[in-house]
Specification:
Strand order of the largest sheet: 1-6-2-5
Number of helices: 11
């Protein structure tokens, strides 16, 4: 393991992985704490960031919205975006298979407790925010590395019934895919957390099977959405790079 590139951080900065160029953490709090002034790559494989990739591949813009914020209808009207019904995790609003059929130039506002909330939190902290999933991990890592600033990869995770963060295997693998590419591109000194996530991804024999059979994959299948999981685990299938700019994720033009 390579030590940090700068002098040891003050105790208050330990949890921010200070001194490292490439970092890895979980959830909305980490998106704000580690992302301020740098680059944040949000990973929510099932389903928010995969949904963003799908919509952006069709030329549609996605406005992320913090889960539970009652201002969503007003915001959607203000930006001219559609606000689909979002009855829960199994609902159609976040379906990548539906979002990739949206007309080019259309706008949609999507709230989720994990990926969308992480994206909004990171942007509010002043970070440059990308959305990555297994499909576009390599492309997003390349765009993030090109900016030459500290990169924090944030796995969104899921929620326990009490609302607390539940680390999710699919997001760990998606984050690991981004981090493995950042390592390959020599994007900087990785924290032990980032190195470990990249190593886990590299050691996985079949990422697709792992995601299909993990807790979240089984949940999606039980809800009749196994086809969405198949779409999500098609690693490396997309070169779309969603960048959050002026409140919306849009595909970064080459």
């Amino acid at each position: 393991m390579t030590p940090p590139s700068s002098s040891p951080p003050a105790p208050a900065d330990w949890h921010r992985q200070s001194g490292y160029d490439v970092r890895f953490e979980w959830g909305p709090v980490a998106a704000a704490e580690l992302g301020a002034g740098g680059v944040v790559v949000v990973v929510d494989v099932l389903r928010f960031t995969t949904a963003v990739e799908a919509a952006n591949s069709a030329g549609a813009a996605v406005y992320p919205w913090r889960w539970g914020d009652p201002g969503a209808p007003e915001r959607a009207r203000a930006v001219g975006a559609e606000l689909p019904s979002q009855p829960g995790r199994g609902g159609p609003a976040l379906s990548p298979l539906l979002l990739r059929q949206r007309p080019a130039g259309s706008k949609v506002l999507l709230a989720s407790p994990n990926g969308a909330t992480c994206s909004v939190t990171a942007a509010e902290a002043g970070a440059t925010v990308f959305a990555a999933c297994l499909r576009n991990a390599g492309a997003v890592a390349g765009a993030a590395a090109a900016l030459g600033r500290p990169v924090t990869v944030v796995a969104a995770g899921e929620r326990w019934p009490d609302g607390s963060l539940r680390p999710a295997l699919e997001d760990l693998l998606g984050a690991g895919a981004v981090l493995a590419e950042l390592t390959r591109r020599r994007a900087g000194v990785c924290s032990p957390e980032a190195e470990s996530a990249a190593a886990l991804f590299g050691a996985a024999a079949s990422v697709g099977d792992l995601v299909r059979h993990c807790a979240s994959g089984r949940e999606m299948a039980d809800r009749g959405r196994a086809d969405e999981v198949d779409y999500a685990v098609d690693a490396g299938a997309s070169n779309v790079v969603p960048l959050l700019n002026e409140g919306a994720f849009r595909a970064l033009l080459p």
